[in-house]
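Researcher: We're teaching a course module on how sequence relates to structure. For the next exercise, students receive a sequence and then see the predicted structure as tokens, so they can try to spot secondary structure elements on their own. Here is the exercise chain.
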Amino acid sequence: MPKRPRLKEILLRWEVALLVLLALEIVVFGGINPKFLRPRVLFGSVNDFMSICVVSLMVTFVLVTGGMDIQSGAIMGLTSIVVGVVWNDLGVNIWLTCLLGTMVGALCGAISGFFVAYTGVQSMVVTLGGSFLYSGLALAVTKFSATESYKGISGFPKDFTQFAKGRVFDVIPNQLILFLVLIVLAYLLLHRTKYGRRVFLCGINRAAAEYCGINTRQVVMSTYILSGLSASLAGILLTAYLGTAKTDLGKELTLPIITAVVLGGTSNLGGSGGVLGTALAALVVGILRFGLSMAGLNTQYLDIPVGALLVLTVTVRFGLMNPRVSALLRRALGKKTAAERRGSA
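Model: And here is the predicted structure for the students to work with:
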């Protein structure tokens, strides 16, 4: 029978630390502004940063393979304007238009994923180029619309906007329920399927994965397709929530998305990570941004604490990889190092 984890091991899990951090944020921001603790406001805040939550789940897959994806914001804007133009100027049903939008996101992810997987170009370079490419395409799409690009396209059907703005029992947002469903699906895909094991193996040792008969190129490319799909879904949700389709939706979300994935415990070097950690970290980042804005911080400066959090997380991670620091930490926690175990034996 598999050995059950002890209570001490459970309490030392990174996800528990993220839960504590999330609770501290709620307490602190509630103390600064009591309105923050109202259930309708607290739950409703999720709508403001749901795009970060949705995209970060699938960007986790990319980072686990050892890659990087910084084009999600551009795909969100491209999807948004495609949905707006096709619905407004071509008269296509809004839900069919949303399906087309997700196909656009998947295609964008496939293009970038192909160059990363089959040409050997660094993922940072490819997705940086993709960010500029897809932002430019979004501006080009507006040429097919009778509406000026800076005004945005609005007037969407009520059932479309209500899906993103609606609440269950007038408290729990529909978007939060959708996020919980996506967490379950992403968790099962990454942690409970053969595909997920292949994703991890590609990040741990791609050569070994090839020797095992795994087509690593297809696996790596597929993670970018999933990331593109999640970005297009986030773009559609944001369009419905704001009631406006614009080319620049999501342009400022790249940093929070990457921060959520890394803070959640996914290594930027690949080979390790998890969906639950990313989901909790996305909430931590989102609540941080929302709480600071309610505390009176200008929205122009919200990236400062998020950037500091990213730098701190990466610094701590590399510090823990140092053998001396790791040994000191294990002794502090009462755990023996490998050398000590051999000596005692």
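Model: If you want an answer key for the exercise: Confidence is low (pLDDT under 50) at residues 337-345. The beta strands are 153-154, 167-168, 172-173, 244-245.
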